[in-house]
Structures are given as structure tokens and as C-alpha cells.
């Protein structure tokens, strides 16, 4: 038998090599562990200390109080009102189902509310509270407070909610606030937006001035156990309230104008015609921002959206109208700039013949000069003179008066309409031949535009600016923020040109013009103006927009300023389907100007009208809200 070569010595040497390899590997592994532990303990100590601290201590965001919005005299327009709210901290709740049932019974929560709470309850993290209800009546707040021992985790507390003292009178002006949507949260990635009870601006000034009104949040640091139970509250960081924003608006005038518009669909805009300060921007009907800020139901939203008077639309900035005869004073300035003598006369036989077509006037005015043509609203005069000078020259003056302009204002949006001319028509023909049938500017286009019809469409703010510039002769710009005393610079328009236009506007109201019934009943104060009637559809034959379905009736417009000898206020009133400026719009302007010069007289007149309408604006709004609630409950019953 052959002897084995693998001796004990060999075996010993092999074992020693294996031990060295294993030992080396163990030593290397141990070295790596020691190095890693050293790295974590020394180099990363601060990082892991912060992580450990965050596990032990959480920061609860304390929402800041929203800044106030006040008028030019410091009167509140949008403020914060103390209220009661109820939150719940999921980590502290022992019996979720029973607790939620008790809360639903006490607070009279709807099924939609309960579903929302359950979803937020399941998605909550750590010590983050979930909102149960806000604007809780005191009796319900007290009922929950006495049951707190039975409902651990429930947190009734005092808070603040947004409040608009005059309700719908400022709805379109300031907008409203609401909880941030998922899209808004994703855009900003700010944990404040996800805090229960915190709301951001959703519309109007509340939205455009959000960053100034929001303020800086505070924080409450709390120490928790590993299971998330509260141990103690640590030192808080106070919040900082948002800025107070002063507007150029006169809150009293704003409320008066909104109330004076009554049940009409329309707007009233009033400007300080020396500085450009916007004193009033009332658009009615309007939604109640208090209701919107609390959150409205689907029924109320649908009824508002389907209302033909469009309470969700800011008519001053977003609605466009043919201005009708209200632009004739501006036309007078354009005609004089083109060399027309204001004393030159035109004979009005009841219309103007262009080729084989006869463009009708509102009456047979005989021989009229520029001033009488404005006073009697003679279309024939402006047909003839417009045809002579061409509309391109008139369009230049229209733009100088602010028509078709988009103003630099803190608003969500504004529609600026169209001041047409030959270049505009050629461009539109290339863009959309369904709107413009031929590229060349025709004589009939000039005649239609010269009386505020045809392609010419404007918003009420532009009409108010036009009236203010004619009244003051100043190149003012409408201003919504702050209060200003410095007059705007003068326009480069001869005084005699302005006097001719103003003289015609004086005669409209104080002579035998179209708005004599709206003369101010205040000694020494004379209002000047110009009425306008704008068609909403093509008129054929003897048909007029003075009757029939509401939506087919003519709009009524009125531009104005006062006093005549020292203009201070100017503006516009538009009444949708009001059938005429003298009938519907001028009386509103008269009463709003009366408010500025003689409040007792104006309030007496308003009280008489509101008695006929069935109560004040707030009373009528409350009745409508009750109707919304009743319909919503009825619909809920049918679904059940």
C-alpha cells in the first residue's frame, strides 16, 4: 500500500492558512463595522440627532390671521371674526366609530361631511388634527365641551373665520376664501395649505393679494411618545398676521350702489376724476362671499351658475357691451380734432342715406349742431360727421379716452373688448372669416361704430374712465389700491374741445335732453351725462328691443360726471336689458351721486325702493339662502 503524501505537517499548514484567511476576513469586516460606526457616531451625529428629535418632537403649524381689507377711510370691508371650531387628533382617539357618531349627532353633520372626515382620519399622520366642523354655534360648542371626558382626541377651540360685513355688495370686488385644492397644494408644496381651517384667496382681491394677506404661520412644538401620544407642549413660535390692505374704494358708496341696483342685472362704477381712485365697483347680482367662504353645496352652485342674470360674473371687468350713444361725447372730441367746427349743423330728417340704404335716427331732430346732437342723441349728425372724417380718426381718440384698454389693476382677469379700425378688420378677416365677412373697412362699418354699435364693444370700467377723462381733461388711470391726492397729468386736448363735449352732456340732464328726469335735486350741484341704448340682437322691420323676453331687450347705459363747474366724480351705469339709459341707468347714477353730496336724501330714496323690492340687500340674500338650503335638503331626501 502506497504511503499518503498528506502528512500531519501538511494538514497543520493548510489549517493555519485557512485560519489566516478567515481571520483576515473577520478582521476586515470588523474594521469596516468599526469605521462605519465611527462615521455614524461622529460625522453623522448631528444628522441622526435631528432625526431622533423629529421622532420625539413634532411641530404643529398655527395658521396666521389673515390681513384685513379696508376702504379709503379705514372702514372694514373684509375682516376676521372669532368663531368656534372642532378638530380631532386621530392618534388620541380611543373609540373612533363611537366618537364620530356622537360628533355627527351633536353637530348635525351631513353624510358628505362624515365621508370627508373618515377619509382625512385614515390619511392623517402623527399628531396632525383633522377638521370636524367650523363656524360652530355656541350651543353645539358647549355640548361638545361638556362631553370631552368621553371623547379623548376631540379638540373644540376658538378660531377665526373670514367675514364680509356687507356680504354680496363686495362679492365681485374682494372675492372669497376657501380651503386649498389638491392642485394648489401641489403647486406650492406648503404644509400650511394642508392645515385644518386654513384658507386661501380663491377669487377677486383675496386671490390676487394672497401673499400680502396671508401672513406668516406660527408653530406649536409638542413632545410625543414612540406611539405618538402627547407628552407635553414645548415653547411655541407666534404667528404673524397678514398685512392690512387699504383700497381706494368708498365702502359706504359701494354698499349703497349695490343696494340701489336692486333686482337689476348690471353695474355701477364711480371714479375720482382728478386722481383716478376707484370709489365704487358694484356688480349685481352677486354671490355672498360669506356663504362661499363657508363652503357652498352643489345645489346652490348649480342654481347660481344657471341664473340668467349671471351672479358669478363681475360685469364691470368681464362683461362686454356695445356702448351705444354713450360714446358720442368722445366722438365729439374726435370730430373736433379732425377739424369739424362744433357750430356746424346737420339736418336730421329722421336718418341718413348711404347709397340705397337708410340708417335711421331716434327721431326727427331738424337742424342740430354738435352740442344739440349730444343732447338729443341724434344719430344722423354722427352718421354724417363720422362718414366725413372716417372711423380710423375716431378710433384714435377712443383709445386716448381709455376705450379698449387693459388697465393695470390687481384683478384676476378683465375683458378689454374692441375698438375697431381698418387695420383691425383686415387682421380679423385673416384670423376668423366667420366674424368678419370682408377685409376692407366700409362706410356702413363707420356709421355703425359712430353710434356705438357694430364691432365696437367695451366694458363698464372703460366707459367710466372715458367719462372721467372728458370731465377732468386729465390722463388718469383707474387705481384700486391706496388713497391718492395728487391729480393726474392733463391730456393734450384743447379746452374748447372739452367744453363742447361737456356742454352737450350738461344739456342731456339739465336741458331738454334725454335724461332730464334724472336731474339732481341738490342746489348748486349739476350732473352731466349721456344716455345709451345698445341692441343685443339684429333688429328687423318694426321690431325693437323694448319688449319681449328679458334676454332680448336692449341694454341701458349711462355715463356721467358731477359737479359740472368743478368735476370731481365720474362713472358709468349699465343695466342689462334695461331697455334704455334714461329709463334704467340714469336714475341709478342720480341716486349714487346724491349719496356723495346728500346722504340723508339718498338713503330716504333707497328705503322707499327697498320696500318695493321686499327688503334690504342682506334681507333678500338671507331669504335666497334659505331657499337654497330648502331645495338642497329636498334633493338630499329624494336621493336617500
Q: Which residues form runs of ≥5 with pLDDT under 50?
A: none
Structural class: alpha+beta
Please give the radius of gyration in angstroms: 36 Å
Distance from N terminus to C terminus (CA atoms, Å) equals 101 Å
What portion of residues is helical? 40-55%
**Discrete helix count:** 24
Biggest β-sheet: count, sense, barrel?
Answer: 5 strands, mixed
Care to give the gist of this entry?
It contains 24 helices and 19 strands. Helices cover 42% and strands 16% of the residues. The mean pLDDT is 88.
For the structure shown, list the relevant keywords.
alpha+beta, 5-stranded mixed sheet, 19 strands, 16% strand
What this model shows, in words?
With 640 residues, this protein is an alpha+beta fold. It is built from 24 helices and 19 strands. The strands form six sheets. Strands 2, 3, 4, 5 and 10 form a five-stranded mixed beta sheet that branches. Strand 8 (218-224) and strand 9 form a beta hairpin. Helix 12 (298-306) crosses helix 24 (617-639), helix 14 (328-337) runs antiparallel to helix 21 (495-510) and helix 16 crosses helix 19 (443-450). The longest helix is centred in the N-terminal third of the chain and has 36 residues, at 8-43. The radius of gyration is 36 Å and the shape is elongated. The protein starts with 7 loop residues before the first helix and ends with a helix. The model has no long low-confidence stretch (mean pLDDT 88).
